[in-house]
Write a structure and sequence with these properties.
5 helices, 13 strands, outer membrane lipoprotein receptor (LolB), chain A, alpha+beta
């Protein structure tokens, strides 16, 4: 016979995961609101420019690259490099193309895979796509200490058993980092990539991190320092069209 006590215990155990998921989704909702709310969700495109510094084994390798970037959230991206803007990289439909004065060619396979892996596990992917997918499981992991600050941690798990973990500042609710673990396609061991967000500026009503730090298995591999950012700007003519980019750079 099924007792009232057993029923209550069963109901409590099924309610606990729901309560946890609701708490996790509440953290994500506060994060979106802190970023700019409706202004952030309605962004059509993003422009940024700045510098990229390279690192080797966690130490600066002396490289510094100027970049100018136009992107559509979860859509195509065009990055022009050097002060002369004589190199362009166009990313769309899971393809990667490099354009120079010599013409267009596919990016190296490893670089292309890294780009799309980061894009598919980015903050935009977590908050714009995964969060809104009814099949995504959301778990509130509790509060953790990150970069000497207290953070709320949430993990999103999709149907493919792939996960993104997001941390937000408990006071400002702004994103602090996004991370994910994957199996290396060549060596088949597990790797972890992390992107940290710092130095927020309010641009066009949207909180924008001007310093982005990229880590691979705990080692810093790249830092991006923004000089400018803008939203919903006029895109370059044929911004994501490879033949047009070839023509423009060849001039």
């Amino acid at each position: 016979m099924f007792s009232a006590g057993a029923f209550a215990q069963s109901a409590a155990s099924s309610a606990a995961p729901d309560a946890n998921a609701q708490k996790g989704r509440a953290v994500l909702a506060r994060m979106v609101e802190a970023l700019g709310g409706q202004k952030w969700t309605a962004v059509r495109n993003v422009y940024t420019d700045g510098n990229i510094a390279g690192f080797f084994h966690g130490n600066p390798d002396g490289s510094m690259l100027r970049f100018f970037d136009w992107s559509v959230p979860l859509g195509p991206e065009r990055r022009e490099e050097t002060k002369q803007k004589n190199v362009a990289e166009i990313y769309q439909n899971h393809a990667c193309t490099e354009v120079t004065y010599r013409g267009a060619r596919p990016q190296q396979k490893r670089i292309c895979e890294e780009y799309w892996r980061l894009r598919d596990h980015s903050l935009d992917a977590a908050l714009r796509a995964w969060r809104n997918d009814p099949e995504t499981l959301v778990t509130y992991d509790g509060q953790v200490l990150s970069e000497r600050r207290l953070a709320d941690q949430v993990t999103l798990l999709n149907e493919q058993n792939d996960a993104i973990t997001v941390q937000s500042d408990t006071e400002t609710h702004l994103p602090m980092q996004v991370s994910f673990t994957y199996r290396d396609p060549e060596f088949h061991d597990k790797d972890t990539d992390v992107v940290e967000f710092n130095d927020y500026h309010l641009i066009d009503g949207i909180q924008t991190p001007f310093t982005l730090t990229y880590l691979h298995n705990g080692e810093m591999v790249e830092q991006r320092y923004l000089l400018r950012a803008a939203y919903n700007v006029p895109l370059p003519p044929h911004a994501f069209d490879v033949p047009a980019a070839v023509t423009a750079i060849a001039r």
